[in-house]
């Protein structure tokens, strides 16, 4: 009887372990998975790249914090595409002009990113990834500072985005996320119906952290 019991236990343990692994793996990010995340982004633009006409100096975007939501679909265990949208509000200042530092105004934008990604460890709790994709930065609600600047318009061109990050399965379908993006794009600003203008590379670093749920 003892031998039969030991044999039964020996057989049951691997089966139980396999069953647990199968149940656990159902929450992995694999082919067919949909991951929805919410993140907080820190946006750190490149400063001093846009020269301002007539008064000289450089246009500077303030650093900002932005909310973001995104969704990723996994076409294979390793290949996914992430679509992301956020909201950013930034302050523009003309630095080092012949008139000193001049407040230009504030502007809002809705960053839109589409990034194909390669996920390195789909069957691990710790799943790093890299991505290269498209970034669009539509600006709206430009609010001139007044004084020297009575009218303000800001636009940007589509650009590239480079991304590296990691998803960590906390429990069940819940994931923690951290990633870093580098945007390569240019922006154009005009004030007072073209009397002042500035064009240059914005090229911000975007650092994000948040949580996600796997469907």
From TrEMBL:
Matches recorded under InterPro entries: OMP/PagP_B-barrel, OMPW
CC per GO annotation: outer membrane
GO biological process: transmembrane transport
The keyword Cell inner membrane belongs to this UniProt entry's keyword annotation: no
Coiled coil: none
This protein's UniProt keywords: Signal
Signal peptide boundaries: 1-20
Family classification: Belongs to the OmpW/AlkL family.
Name of the protein in its database record: OmpW family protein
Natural source organism: Acidisoma silvae
């Amino acid at each position: 009887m003892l031998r039969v019991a030991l044999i039964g236990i020996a057989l049951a343990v691997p089966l139980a372990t396999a069953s647990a692994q199968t149940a656990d793996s159902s929450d992995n990010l694999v082919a067919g998975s949909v991951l929805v995340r919410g993140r907080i982004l820190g946006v750190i633009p490149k400063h001093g790249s846009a020269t301002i006409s007539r008064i000289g100096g450089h246009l500077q975007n303030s650093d900002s914090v932005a909310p973001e939501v995104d969704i990723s679909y996994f076409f294979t265990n390793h290949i996914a595409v992430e679509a992301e949208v956020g909201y950013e509000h930034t302050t523009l200042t003309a630095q080092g002009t012949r008139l000193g530092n001049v407040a230009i105004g504030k502007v809002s934008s809705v960053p839109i990113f589409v990034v194909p990604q390669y996920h390195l460890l789909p069957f691990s709790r710790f799943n790093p990834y890299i991505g290269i994709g498209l970034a669009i930065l539509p600006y709206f609600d430009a609010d001139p500072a007044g004084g020297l600047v009575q009218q303000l318009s800001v636009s940007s061109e589509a650009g590239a985005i480079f991304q590296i990050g990691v998803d960590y399965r906390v429990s069940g379908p819940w994931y923690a996320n951290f990633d870093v993006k580098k945007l390569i794009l240019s922006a154009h600003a005009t004030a007072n119906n073209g009397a002042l203008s500035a064009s240059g590379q914005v090229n911000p670093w975007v650092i994000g952290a948040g949580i996600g749920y796997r469907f």
